[in-house]
Structure formats: C-alpha cells, structure tokens
Amino acid sequence: MFRRCLEIALKAHSPEIEAWKLEQRIDKLAAERKITPDMQTWAHRVRLDGNDALHEEEDFTKESATELMEFTRLLLTYMYTLPEKVKQRIEPSEPKP
Q1: Does residue 7 form part of some domain?
Q2: Model confidence, pTM
C-alpha cells in the first residue's frame, strides 16, 4: 500500500507520464530537483521492494514495511507539507486590526 501511495502522490507531479510508470515519475522528479538524489535512490528501492512484496511468495518483514512507511511519510512531507509551510511563512501576513 505504501508503493500505491507513492504512485498516487507522484502522479500529481507528472500526470503526462503513462499510468503505472513509477520508475519514470521518480526520475522526472529528481531531474526537476523536486526530490534529492538520495531520495531518488531510496524511492527506487521502495518501488522495487513494493514490487517484491506484491509478486514474491516470501513473507515481507516488519523491518521492510517500517522502512517503506518511513520513506513514504518523509517523501510526502518533503513534497507537500514542507513547501506549504515555507510558503505560509514567506507570504506577507494580513495586517491585524
């Protein structure tokens, strides 16, 4: 589900890319400097781990799930929450009566 969350979140930043092309979406964000190179590397690892969880017969470990959750939380914070917080701080505030 974390991989699916990434699909949805990144699609908003690259709707022109054909559906279900998470690899291309990650690389596009990195090329546009919307994520750091380290986040790009980590995102690809999450993408591949998500594929394995879906298609492999082996049990998915708690540690792997925790890493996917943490990365997803950090990526969403970096791409959505942080820019909005910065924007709110630099916009002039309304004068108080």
Answers
A1: yes
A2: 0.73
